[in-house]
Protein 1
Amino acid sequence: MSKFAKKKDGELPAVSTASLPDIVFMLLFFFMTVTVMKDSSLKVRNTLPVASEIKKLEKKDRVITIYVGAPDAQYEKMFGTEPKIQLNDKFSSPTDVGDYILMERAKKSQELQNVLTTSLKVDKDANMGIISDIKLELRKVNALKVNYTTGSGDAFNNLK
Amino acid sequence: MARRLEAPEVNAGSMADIAFLLLIFFLVTTSIETDVGLDRMLPRKELIKVPPVIAERNILPVLINGEDQLMVDGDRVELNELKGLTIAFLDNGGASRESDNYCAYCQGNRDMKSSDNPDRAIVSLMSSRQTTYGVYIAVQNELMLAYNSLRDRESQRRYKTDFTFLEAAYSSSETPNILKSEIKEKMRSIQKLYPIKLSEAARQ
């Protein structure tokens, strides 16, 4: 009769899964907001160095990315272990950089063409020779705004 | 008959599966990108017929060799000394009180053998082709740190805020436009006091 009659022993109430969709949706939205679509698969090793005096890169549509690093293990046989430049999806030589920049620039809308930034994503073990070659090519096509993309952290960690 | 009035409940049990499917799709096709870094402007490609004459005292040569060793102004130094040396050089203000180049806001040693004033002081960064990129970035970072700390000091003195804070406020989308022009004005004045004059060259 009483309202607080005990349930029968041994019968555990089932855990409600009604809120599971909500939790998963929350995760989904988190990933949707913090990530961006991959536009090219990385073929080079790309451990970025770290720095502390960093600035945030502008909107993604104003950025042209150049990857530099030693080829991945699966490409090592074909391309060796020296750092290589990756433009879009293929390995390239420094002389291709100028054409690539011009091509990418032509794809952007008119008003963005003057405010483009070139983001250099370079492996921290690469050498400066290849970077100076790239910089020379960038200067030739007047792409002067450069961002050395890094992680954030203490720059002294790069020395190790 | 009354039973028909209450609508049957939609089974939401499969909702979680659908959401998981979407979640996994986004996990696979996207990546978290690093979108921060050191901003630099490359010099224009122009043929300079006559190189400008710059007194040697106004140049701070920073060399990184192929073994990632650092040399500043002729002495072999460690990376953690670089910031202090750069600040001492930039903030020296060696020009005499009577000359036009006198630097009123400098707090350096006023050494006649070092730079005249921050506007004339040039840091010349030279790297070898064998230099490791990580070390190069670390050096660039230390140089930026030197400039930023001087700018911060001057900004503190004049406007009671850090320069880096002004920069962040300027690029933030939450700052109203009216404030932005004021911030820009302040940033300009600080940048004028300590302009970043960094020359880069690669040596074979």
Protein 2
Amino acid sequence: MNWILQNLPYLGQSTLAHLQLSIPPIVLSFVLSVPLGWLANRFRPVRGPLLTIAGLLYAIPSLPLLLVLGTFLGSLRSDANIIITLTLYGMALMVRSTADALAAVEPDVRQSATAIGYGPWGRFFAVDFPLAGPVLLAGMRVVVVSTVSLVTVGGVLGINGLGLLFTDGLQRAIIAEIVAGIVLTVVLALVLDALLVLLGRALMPWSRATAAPSRRQARKVLATA
Amino acid sequence: MIEFRSVTKQYPDGTRAVEDFSLVIPSRKTTVFVGSSGCGKTTILRMINRMVDPTSGSIQIDGDDIGAIEPVGLRRSIGYVMQNSGLLPHRKVVDNIATVPLLKGVKKKDAREQALKLMDTVGLDRAFADRYPSQLSGGQQQRVGVARGLAVDPNILLMDEPFGAVDPLVRSDLQEELIRLQRDLDKTVVFVTHDIDEAFYLGDQVVILQKGGHIAQVGTPSEILSNPADDFVANFVGANRGKRALHIEETATGSILVDDEGAPPAR
């Protein structure tokens, strides 16, 4: 406990560094997954291979991936290394979620949107994408939690963040430091998750008016993710 | 006037949904396509706004071949109402109704204003304007669907089994409402149903279809009832079934449609 109180500024810095490493991969994996998920959903033959490749990405152990990528980038400890790696993991989850989310949009609604005069792109942005929202949100919640927890692996490479508390605490046998690292990581993940849920409520007020089907779809996607 | 000239729709797997279909749909009248599922009635309807393009033959609206008209623009000029309303679940009722005017570039304020007026037209309380479609009953959703179909004041209104999914009581309300609207608005309505009673009730011209979009008979309800073209039609309209022996009866005020108990058919 003493250690924690004496090191509050250090804990704060680590949390902030952790946050700074978490946000870019979360955002990037969303932005990059949407077109890929769209592609998988739009062109059936592409779907199988694309989703398999994306899924396999997640099977690569994170440490070796960081080492290999770091070697390519010329610096193991760079933020870019961890951001790119975690973006790949995020995409591994999110490409499938996006494809499923778009596939789950009611065909009746899509047809009627076309029938009343939406062009293909207009329909995607005004109809398909917003209606995929609840399932996309469910996917992003998994990505957020997974990313925040994976950033800790950076600690092994000496990259700033809450992961350093584990390695440092382990080497110097400071239990409080390890516990602080774990607790802060979990709290950070929960806070970001809660913010995402709030964002979803603000952007998709309609989904709570129709809570039943969208939640069921969301659960289905979570189960497959 | 909408004219089909020997229109055929063949899908890549070789099935012919519609075969050599020719018909004139008069302006400002209600034409109802009726037939069992798989008879091609919805395919025929969807060819009018180019949701489906014919494999051969041509379709003309007021003399213009629609094959030469850009589909998105064409669809925005034709009202479309479908089963289960097809409303956008993430838009409020008023925004759903205003969808097409907004797509056509009408100012948001004007479009909403007009959408509220349309809610009056179709008999929906304005209090529903800010609700989401899922918060409305099936019948109310269909009314929103009709209002949306009317939003650009189209000459043509396509209705694909619009009342198929609502309960019989609400359905007859909606049917009466449609007849009232049609009296006021004078649109060319093309209506698809599998319910022969609905077809006779709503249609000025009824087209009875057999598999492949083959026309079994075209005519006014009384023409078809009084003189079914063949056994298929007779069977379909139930004229030779004891239970619902619809027939025409001459009265002092004109001819009316009655069932075997001498009452107008239950709707």
Protein 3
Amino acid sequence: MSEKKTNMFIQGIKDGFPIGLGYLAVSFTLGIQCREAGLSAFEATIMSLVNLTSAGEFAALTIIKAASSYLEMAVSQLIINLRYMLMSFALSQKVEPSLPVGHRLGISFGVTDEIFGISIGLKGKLKPSYSYGAMAVAVPGWTLGTFLGVVMGNVLPASVVSALSLALYAMFIAIIMPKAKEDKHVAFACLMAMVFSAVFTYAPLVKDISAGSRIIILTIVLSMAAAVIWPVEDTQGS
Amino acid sequence: MSGNIWIYIAVMAVVTYLIRMLPLTLLRREIKNKTLRSFLYYVPYVTLTVMTFPAILTATGDIRTAAAGIICAIILAWKKQSLPVVAFVSCAVVFVTGLVLGLI
């Protein structure tokens, strides 16, 4: 490894450190929910290691609990994690065009909201060693937190577990709110999503639709409606 | 649960990795279709909102502590605090609210 590559790797570790710590805390609450869904510590840990996605794993637990089909699992992951595709498109413009396929395959594993955030914020082209540095702390943080949540979730007092149950949702609010503040069309789309999600959760007939299907249906219909009504000029770099 | 947990995990992992990998590996040009680009732009925010609401109201088991946590999260997120800060402080507010409600 040349000196320059080593520097980028260390820079990745530095920038990835707060992400790894945050993941540790959030995946701890995911671990608690894995346990409630009936997963063993080993199953939950492997799930986090190979998926590295909070919203996706969180939705997967709903599907596992409901014993829904594998197809429903595949479609839900596709829809919920579709944003990674957008990020992957953006990153394809951020790396050197000559970057070999092997490195492209490696970087792809670490496309998360937060790692994407620090990668796209870099000056100049994204070097693969930077991504690997960030992943070197983020992936263990996420995996270890999940494991600890499963094995230690039940030794914590109920009041602490109850408080931690809000963590994932609070993180989602932290992703949505700054964007909604900046773009009123996003804000309105989210407002509509709240209204329809509440209706589909409580209203007769539609409340029988499973949570996984509700997420998929409302996301496609409302996002498409927003895209047709308020097309976006530039979706890159945001 | 009736499904095999390892098949569920394998399905998740394969789908999620393909989503992350295909554009970065295969496509070196931007999507030109404006509607498709706009759709992809709205997807993350709409899907996170649907997952969060109304489930967040019952997450803590007490709507009063949940409400305190939600208000805290909204205020901190509005002030553009980082994800771990919003998550941690909101949890702390839920915990303290629970303690206070237990006293009265």
